[in-house]
Design brief:
This protein has 172 residues and is an alpha+beta fold. Helix content is 33%, strand content 24%. It contains 5 helices and 7 strands; from the N terminus they run H-H-E-E-E-E-H-E-E-H-H-E. A hairpin with a 2-residue loop joins strand 3 and strand 4.
């Protein structure tokens, strides 16, 4: 839909963004979001009608020890790959990744064991801008226009963890 100030397209987008914010109002997915995430995680891991950068993240739960899966968007920037937490540092998957020492699995038509390394705040701005271009579902949660100057992304970079994806050398 083309962007039109005050037009049908912008009203529809506003309603869609409102729905997405409602699904994560507490900073965690509500029942509807969890249901949709399960469907998306399956779809992304199989690669069915999903771009190559839409993957399923699998990480060991910090309390249960069981694998926790969720759909994520891999962001490419300067030849590297990254994951961004649209819900900030207290998102469940972020805390699980930290507890697991960064070890995780990405699934999209196969399994890739990876290590997720925290990106310093000073390096996050261009990655966050690229992320907003690739992850339409994240736009309602990050209050910067995707075409905004890099300085605006720098001001809010500390609120959104970014992880560099590297191969897991241990293969565990």
């Amino acid at each position: 839909m083309p962007k039109q100030k005050g037009g049908v397209a912008s009203r529809a987008a506003a309603k869609w963004h409102s729905l997405l914010r409602w699904m994560y109002a507490s900073g965690r997915p509500n029942r509807m979001a969890r249901f949709l995430n399960r469907i998306s995680a399956f779809q992304f891991s199989t690669g069915l009608l999903a771009p190559g950068n839409w993957v399923t993240l699998e990480v060991r739960g910090r309390r249960s020890g069981r694998p926790v899966t969720l759909p994520v968007v891999v962001t490419d920037h300067d030849g590297e790959r990254y994951l961004v937490s649209m819900l900030g540092p207290n998102a469940n998957w972020v805390r699980n990744v930290r507890a697991a020492g960064g070890q995780a699995v990405l699934r999209h038509r196969g399994r890739e064991r990876v290590r997720l390394q925290v990106v310093p705040v000073a390096q996050r701005a261009p990655i966050l801008r690229r992320y907003l271009h690739l992850a339409p579902g994240a736009r309602p949660h990050i209050s910067v226009e995707r075409e905004a100057p890099l300085a605006e992304f720098e001001r809010m970079a500390a609120r959104f963890p970014v992880f560099r994806i590297t191969p897991d050398p241990t293969g565990r």
